[in-house]
TrEMBL record, chain A:
Gene3D superfamilies: Rieske [2Fe-2S] iron-sulphur domain
Short name of one Pfam family: Rieske
Keywords: 2Fe-2S, Iron, Iron-sulfur, Metal-binding, Oxidoreductase
Residue ranges of domain Rieske in the record: 6-112
Lineage: unclassified sequences, metagenomes, ecological metagenomes
Protein name: Rieske domain-containing protein
A GO term, aspect molecular function: oxidoreductase activity
From TrEMBL, chain B:
Protein name, per record: Vanillate O-demethylase oxygenase-like C-terminal catalytic domain-containing protein
Positions of the UniProt region annotated as Disordered: 1-20
Transmembrane segments: none
Pfam families assigned: VanA_C (PF19112)
Biological source species: marine sediment metagenome
Start and end residues of each Vanillate O-demethylase oxygenase-like C-terminal catalytic domain: 137-319
Biased composition (Polar residues): 1-12
GO molecular function: oxidoreductase activity
Keywords annotated in UniProt: Oxidoreductase
Length: 313, 345
């Protein structure tokens, strides 16, 4: 099963022209690499010769070279360009190829198109427009991908934290469908304030999570009560092996001049401390206590967006 | 008005089995919601939410305004206004009883006559700040209202503040119209509530009380008049704002101005103790009412007001599903309820 979608599968800086990067994106094993001109490519991480992961090889002038027998594959077409030690009069059969995937790179993310249909133009990270310094990272988390997405709606505090901010689980309305994403606001307070959240009449902060109906691009934003953005985090997520989830993220602080920001927040920003932390370890006990609330809408929508994948070649 | 007392309810009456109750999905239109305490609305906009519909509130020259968009974006986004504001972006709004009331529904149907009558709150809202508090419920508004109607839970969940369920006599009555449900509980010789004993200074061992709860079904406005003897009256307004299917907000007013100090100051804050106790049960309860189930709820005779509330809500919702948003001839949301609450007795 796969849904026709672009998946942000790696940070741009993690993909280079020397050593292929092995990633698992929505269950698909991929080898990502660049050519000398910096163009990024994705091939199935499986040499069609003896099924060895191509990511164990290296990047050469003409593409990616398998580390086992040196067969070399073109990044764009997947065509096998070289089989070492062939005679001069021998040619690589035209049908010899690794499986290629369409790639689009945008705003610091390498996207791969998964699905049978022709790729569309809606590359997820196109909406991520960083300003100034970015904070990035990647990891693999022991949680099912669908559960990761669900927890982003039901209890993002299990998965991400903002410096000096306490998220509440008081949803400001129900999830709304916007651009193929379910968007949900929840109240938040500065953790530096003495008053507990239940005594606050109007929350001074909003945490807005945006979770995809198809694909794995998540956006988490910290906003003031006037909805001025303070911090934006774009998290690319996808199913890895054995029920785990791969994530990579980029985030930044907005240059907005916001009043009523605590001194601790300002001081930490001066010291260039990250304004947020994406958790790469999940507290199972905390997660287990999350009630399925807004994520019920997501489960329904994601089920209907999945279409059967035709038999793989 | 129809009336039923639990003490004379005929047992064994069989009616057609109703479909399961899924209160989380109610979205009743054409009513005034007390969307905020008046004092919380200033020139600086705040956002409140009714059934996921945004209500930005602020004042211009002291006059309250309510709109779908932040005032700084109102002009630019007016074209995207919904039917809730008739394309103008602005909701009908009234200030009364210390609240900003905003209309939810067809703005052409907004009528000041449909505002509830609240006899124990001053029309101009001139009431001390200590009487007003905000609490949040981790459940839809209908489940939160049912929690308030249900009195037997209080004797267990809130025993440490409100008191145990042991009494000489406990009678619950319910009466209703197509737009309201009124529950009256009369208890004699009940152990004095801890809050009244330790803070209110009531030294007697037992007390009688009569608690009337008048509920406006569309708006979840709960007008409550408990009278304790010996003790005090604690008239209070608990309007459950339906933020969404999972959460509701309650900007409460406890008019304890006639009670002695420190009881008058502490009683409005008792919700900070009671509400987490309620949340501990309504929170897991809420998701179990999202979808209809074959496993129906069981009821005791004490649940008569609750089951009546469920039935009346369903009737009203069904009428609105058919496209009928009018108020029935028996409704009169603005009628004088002084006698109904027992304030004159």
């Amino acid at each position: 099963m796969a849904n026709n979608a672009w998946w942000a599968s790696a940070l741009s800086e993690a993909v280079n022209n020397e050593k292929p990067l092995a990633v698992v994106c929505n269950g698909e094993e991929l080898a990502l690499f660049r050519d000398r001109q910096g163009q990024a490519f994705a091939l199935e991480d499986r040499c069609p010769h003896r099924r060895v992961p191509l990511s164990l090889g290296c990047v050469v002038e003409s593409g990616i070279q398998c580390g086992y027998h040196g067969w070399t594959f073109d990044g764009a077409s997947g065509a096998c360009t070289t089989i070492p030690n062939l005679h001069a009069n021998e040619r690589v059969p035209a049908r010899y190829a690794a499986r290629p995937y369409p790639v689009a790179e945008r705003n610091g993310f390498v996207h791969v198109w998964l699905g049978e249909d022709e790729p569309n133009e809606s590359v997820p990270a196109a909406t991520y427009q960083p300003e100034g310094r970015e904070y990035t990272g990647a990891g693999t988390i022991s949680i099912l991908h669908e559960e990761y997405l669900a927890a982003m709606l039901d209890g993002p505090h299990c998965l991400i934290s903002f410096d000096a901010v306490k998220m509440t689980d008081f949803f400001l309305g129900d999830p709304r469908l916007q651009n193929d994403h379910l968007v949900l606001d929840r109240g938040a307070v500065w953790s530096t304030r003495v008053l507990p959240p239940q005594f606050v009449v109007d929350y001074p902060l909003i945490v807005r999570t945006s979770v995809p109906v198809r694909g794995g691009d998540i956006r988490v934003e910290l906003l003031t009560e006037q909805e001025a953005p303070l911090c934006t985090v774009f998290i690319a997520s996808g199913a890895n092996r054995r029920g785990t989830t791969s994530v990579c993220w980029r985030g930044f602080l907005h240059q907005s001049d916001v009043s009523h920001v605590p001194l601790r927040w300002r001081a930490a920003r001066k010291m260039k401390r990250p304004p947020f932390r994406v958790h790469t370890q999940v507290d199972g006990k905390l997660l287990a206590t999350l009630l399925e609330a807004p994520s019920r809408d997501l489960a329904r929508l994601r089920d209907s967006s999945i279409i059967p994948l035709r038999a793989a070649v | 008005m129809h009336t039923v007392s639990t003490s004379n309810t005929a047992a064994g009456q069989r009616t057609k089995r109703p479909s399961d109750w899924t209160p989380v999905n109610y979205d009743l239109h054409d009513t005034w919601f007390p969307v905020s305490h008046s004092r919380d609305v200033t020139s600086r906009p705040i956002r409140r939410i009714i059934h996921s519909q945004p209500y930005f509130l602020w004042r211009e020259n002291g006059i309250p305004q309510a709109a779908e968009f932040h005032p700084s974006r109102l002009a630019a986004l007016r074209h995207a206004s919904s039917a809730f504001t008739g394309g103008s972006g602005s909701y009908p709004v009234i200030e009364r009883y210390g609240y900003i009331w905003a209309w939810y529904g067809d703005p052409d149907h907004a009528d000041i006559q449909l505002l509830p009558h609240i006899p124990f709150l001053p029309l101009d809202g001139n009431i001390p700040g200590y009487t007003q508090r905000t609490v949040r419920f981790d459940a839809s508004s209908a489940l939160s209202v049912e929690n308030l109607i249900d009195l037997t839970h209080a004797d267990f969940l809130h025993a440490n503040t409100i008191g145990d369920g042991i009494s000489e006599s406990d009678v619950v009555e319910v009466e209703w119209t197509s737009e309201t449900v009124t529950r009256t509980r009369m208890v004699t010789q009940k152990s004095v509530a801890p809050v009244m004993r330790w803070v209110g200074g009531i030294r007697a061992r037992y007390q009688d009380f009569r608690a009337v709860l008048h509920i406006h079904l569309r708006s979840n406005v709960c007008i409550s008049y408990p009278r304790f003897r010996p003790g005090y009256d604690i008239p209070n307004l608990q309007p459950f704002l339906p933020v969404g299917r999972h959460r509701s907000r309650c900007d409460v007013t406890f008019n304890t101005t006639a009670a002695p100090s420190p009881f008058r100051y502490l009683m409005p804050r008792i919700n900070y103790i009671i509400q987490p106790q309620d949340n501990s049960v309504v929170r897991p309860q809420n998701e179990r009412y999202l979808d209809a189930s074959d496993r129906r709820d069981l009821h005791s005779r004490f649940d008569a007001p609750g089951t009546r509330y469920r039935y009346q809500m369903e009737q009203l919702a069904e009428r609105q599903r058919r496209g009928d948003f009018s108020y029935g001839a028996d409704a009169e949301p603005g009628r004088d309820i002084t006698a109904l609450l027992g304030m004159d007795g």
